[in-house]
Amino acid sequence: MDTSESLALAAVQVMTAAASGAGTAVGQAVGELVRSRLGGSAPGRTALNGLDQNPEDTAAADALRSTLQDELTADPDFTGQLRNAFVPPAPSHPPHYPSGSIVVGTSKLRGSQLSLGPLTISNVRNSKGSWFTIAILMLLMLVLALYGGVQLFTGGDSRGSGHVPEAKRVVLRDAAQVLPVLPALGSLPTGWSVKNGFPGTMKCPPKSPGCDGSSVSAVSEYVPASKVDQARIELRSYPTVDAAVVGYKALAKQQKDRGTGLDPLSLPDVGGDEAMAVSWAIHPNPNEPDMTEATGATSVVRVGTVAVTIYLRDEGAGGTDLDVLQALTAAMAARVGEAISGQTPKSTVQL
C-alpha cells in the first residue's frame, strides 16, 4: 500500500463520517483540505457531490478515493499537506541530548562512549588509530541515518509460520495508517452500517489500560443488522512489539477483572500472535438503572505491534451470539496483519 493509496483511503473514511453528520476534528481538517483541492476541477466536484448526496454509497466513496489518489500521485506537495493533516502535534519540548554528544539518527557519540544501534564501544582514546575507527563508525552511522529503520544487526526469527518477520513489518504511527484497518461499509456483513461519527482517532490517557506507550489509537462503532445490538472496535498501535505485548496484557487483564459473572471463551483460528475473550452478564446493571438485563462479550487480540479490543453487547437476557465475536476478531487480526505487512486491509467480516 503506497502513500497516496493509504492517504486517499483514510481521507475518504473520515470524510464519509463527516458527511454523515458527525465528523471529528481530524475529519474536519482533512475534509477542508480535500475539498479545497478537488473543488477546483470538474471531476473533483463530481466526486465530492456524490459523497455528499449519499455518504453510505460505496461506489461514491470509491470514486472519491480514486480521484483523490490521482491528485496525490501527481502532486507530492499536496501529499505532504494531507499527511500533515493526520499527524498528531509535535511534542512541546524537543528531545534533549547531553552537551558534548553527537547524534546521527538514533546513534550517539558522547565522551568516551560510542553507541551505534545495539553496539556500544567504550574507552575510545584520543589517538590516531582511535579517531580513524571513529571516522569509520561515523560513516556507518550516516548510512543508518540515510536508510532510517534498516537494522544492520538483527537476530533470526524463531517463530513459526503465520508471523510477519520483524524486519518486514510496518509500524502504524498515525491516523492515516490505522483508520483504514477498521472495517468500512464494504467490509461488513450485509445490513450492517458504520455508526455516525466513526471511525476516528481516540484519546488514550496514559493511566488507562493499554494506553501507556501507545503511538496512536482509533475507534469505530457499528450498527449490526441482527444477532447483537452494539459493536465497537478499539485499536491501539505501539512503536515496538515489546510495547504491544505489555499493552495487550493490560487490556486482557482489564477484561478478566470486569467482575463476577464472567466466562472465559475460546476463539479458535482467529489468527494473530495472542488472543483472549470473555462473555459477561448484567442482572441488572447498577450503572444503567433503565436496563434490567444485558449480556455481552469482549475479545482482545494482538498482531505484531497492534492490539485490538472488540466489544459486543445485547440489551436483553438472550445471550450474545459468539459467532459475531469470532468473525469480527478473525477479520481484525487479518486486517492488522495486512496493514503491518504494507498491504491495503481488504479482509471482510464473514458471518
Strand-helix topology:
Layout: H1 3-19, H2 25-38, H3 42-53, H4 58-74, H5 76-86, E1 101-104, E2 107-110, E3 113-116, E4 119-122, H6 128-146, H7 175-178, E5 193-194, E6 200-201, E7 216-223, E8 230-237, H8 241-256, E9 263-265, E10 274-282, E11 294-303, E12 306-314, H9 322-340
Antiparallel strand pairs: 1-2, 2-3, 3-4, 5-7, 6-7, 7-8, 8-12, 9-10, 10-11, 11-12
Helix pairs in contact: 1-2, 1-4, 2-5, 3-4, 4-5
Tell me about this structure.
By secondary structure, this protein is α+β, with helices and mostly antiparallel strands. Helix content is 37%, strand content 19%. Strand 9 (263-265) and strand 10 form a beta hairpin. Helix 1 crosses helix 2, helix 2 (25-38) runs antiparallel to helix 5 (76-86) and helix 4 (58-74) packs across helix 5 (76-86). Mean pLDDT is 75; it is low at 88-95, 99-129 and 142-163.
The overall pLDDT, averaged over residues, is 75
Given helix and strand content, the structural type is: alpha+beta
Poorly predicted regions are 88-95, 99-129, 142-163
Got a strand count? 12
Q: In whole angstroms, how far apart are the ends?
A: 27 Å
The helix/strand order is HHHHHEEEEHHEEEEHEEEEH
User: What spatial form do the alpha-carbon principal axes imply?
Assistant: globular
Key structural traits:
4-stranded antiparallel beta sheet; 351 residues
